Amino acid sequence: MPADSAPIPSPEAKAPPAAFGRGLVLDTWYFVALSRDVAVASLKRHELLGEPVLVGRRRDGQVYAMRDICPHRAAPLSAGRLVQKPGEPEAVECPYHGWRFGTDGVCAAIPSLVDDQPYEADRIRVRSYPVAESQGMVFVYVRSDPRSDAAPDHPPPTFPGVVGGEAKLVEWMDFDSHIDHAVVGLMDPAHGPYVHQQWWWRSEHSMHEKAKAFEPRDLGFAMVRHAPSSNSRAYKILGGAPATEITFRLPGYRWEHIQVGEKQVLALTCLTPVTETRTRITQIFWSDHWVFSLAKPFLRMGVVAFLKQDGGMVNLQNEGLRYDPALIWIDDADKQAKWYQQLKREWQKSRAEGRDFSNPVKPAVLRWKS
């Protein structure tokens, strides 16, 4: 973040950083949908950080987002329709009493008023959210201060490789988990041989020591480009000599960029907190490798299997977490989980203090068995 764009602290941001498994990262961008799933004139309800959010697309192609509650009688605006009355901009019409709200959230009209009943409708506002459409994805920026109209001070993430074309495979699942647990579960290098036991992946009988180099990246860190581990059999179908780089970025993005000669595969995982206790995991794949189309049915089965296995382990973990136990973190297998916690704390502190973010991650070589 450039020095001249340091954030202005808000009352909400001044709270001390939340403990692990509590609190959500604010003043940042969350993935909500693929662009192709936001149709013109559509009104779709999402839940984001415990708030109902309407995401729609105007007829000029512009995407917008607003709180999905009419301030009149609390009907969901997403149950209405996008209309354009003479002399008015396009507006979302509430299905209950026809109140109309511009896509900026400002009330444009209250149909039940008569001409001699003065009422400043434009003083009524529905909370609106900054929206960005990038690389075929829609991101919503959630401010720490819902009253603020300040523009986001940083852009949504951008991803390497073949992103921007049509996604080859998309799967998602909701986990009954705070995003913190979902993130560290996603980046945990040691659970694979026990949770994900497939013949085409790996098992505890194929475990061996690994050493990987890591370095800081924008709002996160990366396992620098390397040859995949010899016990990761799924990579072998790509042929050639694949090289992969795995990156994590706040608030919850992890991507693996694989290169095989001039061909590429990008596997992106987006973690979106639906509520404090539910997280949506969306896995999106792009590739220009010829084998991807042939392997897609098998890859889909593998992705679904992995999600179900991780979801099952989350449910088991929740049995213990409801007693609020102290958790033990070890080096080096849990170092990425520690980095995530440091990144989250530094983000919250930098916002509270109105200063630039300083990445706490230092270059390191981590060693573990899996």
Automatic annotation (TrEMBL):
Q: Name one Pfam family in it.
A: Rieske
Which InterPro entries does the record associate with it?
Cholesterol_7-desaturase, Rieske_2Fe-2S, Rieske_2Fe-2S_sf
Q: Which residues form a coiled coil?
A: none
- Which UniProt keywords are present, listed alphabetically? 2Fe-2S, Iron, Iron-sulfur, Metal-binding, Oxidoreductase
What GO annotations for molecular function exist for this entry? 2 iron, 2 sulfur cluster binding; metal ion binding; oxidoreductase activity
Entry keyword Secreted: no
Keyword Iron appears in the UniProt entry: yes
| Every Rieske domain range | 29-140
Q: Could you tell me what this protein is called?
A: Rieske (2Fe-2S) iron-sulfur domain protein
Q: Which organism is it from?
A: Brevundimonas subvibrioides (strain ATCC 15264 / DSM 4735 / LMG 14903 / NBRC 16000 / CB 81)
